[in-house]
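Dear support,

I submitted the protein below through the web form. The confirmation email said the job was done, but the results page showed an empty box. After a refresh the structure appeared. I'm attaching both so you can tell me whether what I see now is the final result or a partial one.
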Amino acid sequence: MSTVGKVLIVAQIGFSILLMAFAAGVSSVQTNWKAKEKTAREELNKSKSTLQVAQTELQKERTQVAAVQKNLKNAADKAQGEADAAKTKNRQLDARLKQTSTELENTRAEADIAGQESRARREEAVSLRDINAQLHQSRDQLITQNREQAEKIVNLDQASKTMVAKHNDLLNQYAVLQKFIRVKGFDPDPKELAGLVEPPPVLETVVNSTKKGGRNGQDLVEIDMGSDVGLAKGHKLFVYRGPKYLGSIRLEMVDYRTAVGVVISSTKNGEIRRGDNVTTKL
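What the results page shows now:
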């Protein structure tokens, strides 16, 4: 075999090795992208599930508020009904009082006539005086009942006004709180506010992975702890490597065992990377 033939054979073997290495590299890249796509799809499904739960909780809150409003309205209607009934009874008592007063005047007139009659009518006059005394007693009782009913009406009116005012105050407070929370740029859902109201637990963990220029151009950091240890959206964590402080992150998405946060501050001590230490308290 000539020297040229040997050179061609060596060159062919070299090209074959290069093509095999290129094919292996392409296969590895495709596999990595498929894994990332699967992870992103799982995270999207988890986000949809979290959104559905949040919507359910919001609907439950709205249902509870509607039930409270309905109960307050029913109580106000009931108080108004009792007040109207008391007013009707008071009018009836007034009518009976007028009727009794008329009967009393008639009885007095008859008693005066009986006093001018003969001795034979004296027994009748005594009987009429007894009736007169009973009518006086009945009138006094009716006057007392009338006063009691008037006081009940006043109390019921006051109670009704108090309940209506309390109902309106609760509605106003609820509307103001909802508006205040939205103006501050927060979701009024209690679950979304948990991380802003309650401080994170004291814990130590590490960075799983990082991604530069993620959502809204912010750098993302994933850690290996989540809601299973008490972390929630909005919690602030600090990142360091050895004695060097690297910056801080705010959690934006929290699963049961992992969480993802955005970098809100950084230092010149180095970029945050996989394996860096994370703590909730410096």
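Response: this is the final, complete result; the empty box was a page-load delay. The CA atoms of residues 72 and 167 lie 6 Å apart.
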